[in-house]
C-alpha cells in the first residue's frame, strides 16, 4: 500500500487494534477486581487503587499509540514518505515517543507495585514483607530510570526532534536494550516472590499445584516483556525508526495489559466461587473453608465451624500456612502468632 498522508499504515493499524483490545481486556479484569470488593462488602485497598491508576495510564498510552500512527506515520517505511512529510513526522513521532516513555514505565511500575502489595497481604510474614518491599522499590527505581533516560538521552531535550540538530545523544540502542533487560528481570523477581512461600505450605499436593499454577500466570507477563525486548533490539534509531517502532509500540501495550490481567486475577477467587456455585459446583476453598488453621503452637487444628469474616479474598488462611519450622528462631513465634490472626486478612 503506497504512503498517504494521515492514513494509517498496516503496522500502525495493528498497533492501534492490539493496544485497544488488550487495554479493554485489562479494563474488564480491573473492574472485576473492584466488583469482588463490593461482593465482599470491602473497601478497595491500596493495591486496587494503584492498579486503577495503572489502567488509566495504559489507556493514555493507547491514545499515544493512535497519535503515533495517525500523525507520526508509525509503520511507514522511511523511503516511502516524501521529504516534507518525513520531516514533520520525525518531529511528531519523537515527541509522542517521549510522552510514551513517560506514561508506559509509570504504568508498569504501578502494576508491579500493586502485585507486590497483593503478595504482602497474602503472605504476611515479616521476612516476606522485607523482601517484597525491596523488590517493589527496585521496580519503582526502574520506572524512574526509564523515564529519565527518555528525557536525558539527548541534551538538550529538544534536539531529539529538532531538524537543526545542535545537541548530543547517547547510545539509544544500548540504553533501551539495557532497560528492556532490566524490565524482564523485575518481572521475574516479582512473580518469583511467592514461590518459596508456596513450597512451604501445609496443603494437599493437588491444592499446592493449583496455587503454584495460579501464580505462574505471571509467566505470560514475562513472555510479553521478552517479546518487547526483542522488538527493541530490532529498532534502527537512525534510519527507519518509524517502521521499526511498530512492534515495540504494541508489545508495550500488551505487556502492561497482561500484567494488569494477571495481577487482578490473583484476587478474583471469590468471584470464581460465586460463578461455580451457580452451577452447583463448589471449589476447594468452599468445601474445606475453615477446616483447619494454625494454632499458636504451630499445629493444624480442626475448625469446621469457624465463622470466617466477609472480607476474605483469594484463598483462606486455612489453605495457606507457612511451616513454622521454616522460620528463623527470632521470627518463628511472632510470625506464627501473626498467621493465627489470618481471619482478619482480606486475602487468605
**Straight-line distance between termini:** 55 Å
Q: If strands are numbered along the chain, what order do they take across the biggest sheet?
A: 1-2
Structural class from helices and strands?
Answer: mainly alpha
Task: List low-pLDDT spans.
Answer: 282-348
Outline? elongated
Q: Can you count the helices?
A: 12
Chain-averaged pLDDT: 77
The biggest beta sheet reads: 2 strands, antiparallel
Descriptive account of the structure:
It contains twelve helices and four strands, in the order ααααββαααααααββα. With 348 residues, the protein is mainly alpha-helical. Strands 1-2 form a two-stranded antiparallel ribbon. The longest helix has 40 residues, at 83-122. It starts with 9 loop residues before the first helix and ends in an 8-residue tail after the last helix. The relative contact order is 0.14.
Keywords:
348 residues, mainly alpha, two-stranded antiparallel ribbon, two-stranded antiparallel sheet, 12 helices, elongated
Give a nutshell description of this structure.
By secondary structure, the protein is an all-alpha fold.
Give the arrangement of secondary structure elements.
Elements: H1 10-39, H2 46-70, H3 83-122, H4 126-152, E1 154-155, E2 168-169, H5 172-192, H6 195-199, H7 205-215, H8 218-233, H9 241-265, H10 269-278, H11 284-287, E3 292-294, E4 300-302, H12 329-340
Antiparallel strand pairs: 1-2, 3-4
Amino acid at each position: 500500500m503506497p504512503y498517504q498522508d494521515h492514513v494509517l499504515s498496516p503496522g500502525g493499524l495493528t498497533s492501534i487494534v492490539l493496544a485497544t483490545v488488550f487495554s479493554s481486556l485489562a479494563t474488564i479484569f480491573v473492574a472485576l477486581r473492584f466488583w469482588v470488593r463490593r461482593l465482599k462488602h470491602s473497601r478497595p485497598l491500596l493495591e486496587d487503587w494503584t492498579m486503577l491508576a495503572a489502567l488509566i495510564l495504559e489507556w493514555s498510552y493507547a491514545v499515544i499509540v493512535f497519535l503515533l500512527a495517525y500523525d507520526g506515520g508509525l509503520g511507514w517505511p522511511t523511503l516511502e514518505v516524501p521529504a516534507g512529510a518525513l520531516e514533520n513526522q520525525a518531529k511528531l513521532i519523537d515527541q509522542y515517543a517521549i510522552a510514551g516513555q513517560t506514561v508506559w514505565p509509570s504504568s508498569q511500575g504501578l502494576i508491579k507495585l500493586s502485585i507486590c502489595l497483593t503478595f504482602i497481604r497474602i503472605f504476611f510474614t515479616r521476612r516476606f514483607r522485607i523482601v517484597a518491599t525491596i523488590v517493589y522499590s527496585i521496580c519503582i527505581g526502574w520506572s524512574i530510570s526509564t523515564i529519565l533516560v527518555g528525557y536525558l538521552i539527548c541534551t538538550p531535550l529538544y534536539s531529539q526532534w529538532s531538524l537543526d540538530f545542535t545537541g548530543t545523544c547517547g547510545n539509544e540502542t544500548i540504553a533501551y536494550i539495557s532497560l528492556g533487560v532490566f524490565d524482564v528481570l523485575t518481572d521475574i523477581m516479582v512473580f518469583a516472590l511467592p514461590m518459596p512461600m508456596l513450597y512451604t505450605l501445609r496443603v494437599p499436593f493437588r491444592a499446592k499445584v493449583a496455587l503454584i499454577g495460579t501464580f505462574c500466570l505471571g509467566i505470560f507477563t514475562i513472555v510479553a516483556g521478552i517479546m518487547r525486548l526483542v522488538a527493541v533490539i530490532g529498532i534502527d534509531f537512525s534510519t527507519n525508526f518509524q517502521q521499526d517502532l511498530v512492534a515495540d509500540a504494541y508489545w508495550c501495550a500488551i505487556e502492561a495489559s497482561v500484567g494488569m490481567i494477571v495481577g487482578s486475577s490473583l484476587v478474583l477467587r471469590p468471584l470464581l466461587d460465586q460463578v461455580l456455585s451457580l452451577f452447583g459446583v463448589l471449589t476447594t476453598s468452599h468445601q474445606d473453608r475453615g477446616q483447619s488453621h494454625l494454632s499458636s503452637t504451630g499445629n493444624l487444628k480442626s475448625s469446621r465451624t469457624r465463622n470466617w469474616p466477609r472480607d476474605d479474598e483469594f484463598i483462606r488462611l486455612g489453605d495457606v500456612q507457612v511451616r513454622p519450622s521454616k522460620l528463623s528462631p527470632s521470627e518463628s513465634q511472632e510470625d506464627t502468632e501473626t498467621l493465627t490472626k489470618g481471619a482478619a486478612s482480606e486475602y487468605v
